[in-house]
Design a protein that fits this description.
Elements lengths: L2 H14 L2 H19 L2 E2 L8 E2 L3 H11 L1 H19 L6 H24 L2 H35 L3 H11 L6 H30 L1 H6 L3
Antiparallel strand pairs: 1-2
């Protein structure tokens, strides 16, 4: 690829991300980081699975500024969280959080920005919730839990046992996904979606006057 073509692509990206948007992205990323610090457990999930509302600024930023902005907010959130709190999972928990945030934000934002109607906001949020809740089953079963087990030298059976202590329906990896992780994500992203739906209507002034 020639230097001219590379420079042209960089210029195109800069044109999409204005200084005003960069400030908003940084602000949303900082808010998302703060929200990520306030995590709490859900009764039917293993103790190492915590809920937070850090996806709220991500989805709002994505709706207002596009999927690239939403992804940058995710990167800022994870980066600042690692700086402020570090990691207790050798980065596996942060990877899971990043994938979850992206699989929620991307389909929702792409659908909304294609339709851009009032009803499409609710439809986009429902789509994002379903995609990330179902996707979490495969993400955790085939990537996150195996990597975590290997890095820590912890047998998968030990992880399943942790799920069984809080949810008697968990007896193997599949039931851990179906009766613990899936409902957890469904609850988490449904709550985020409801708050987003209300907040997005209230942020009409910001959308009209700050983000163009």
């Amino acid at each position: 690829m020639s230097i001219y073509k590379i420079d042209k692509k960089i210029t195109k990206i800069k044109g999409k991300i204005t200084t005003k948007k960069l400030v908003m992205i940084g602000m949303f990323g900082a808010i998302s980081t703060i929200l990520m610090l306030f995590e709490f457990p859900i009764p039917f999930t293993p103790t190492f699975v915590k809920m937070d509302l850090s996806e709220l600024p991500i989805i709002l930023g994505g709706f207002m500024m596009g999927p690239l902005a939403g992804f940058l907010i995710i990167v800022i959130k994870i980066g600042l969280h690692l700086v402020l709190k570090g990691t207790t999972t050798m980065g596996v928990g942060e990877l899971a959080n990043m994938i979850g945030s992206a699989t929620y934000m991307l389909p929702a934002v792409l659908l909304y920005r294609k339709l851009k109607t009032r009803s499409s906001v609710a439809l986009a949020l429902i789509l994002g919730t379903i995609v990330t809740s179902v996707g979490s089953i495969f993400e955790n079963m085939y990537l996150i839990f195996p990597v975590y087990s290997k890095l820590y030298g912890m047998p998968i059976k030990a992880i399943i046992a942790m799920g069984t202590t809080t949810n008697p329906y968990v007896t193997n990896m599949f039931t851990l996904m179906c009766f613990s992780l899936f409902p957890f994500n469904l609850v988490k992203y449904s709550v985020v979606s409801i708050i987003t739906f209300v907040a997005f209507k209230k942020l009409g002034f910001v959308r009209r006057n700050l983000i163009k």
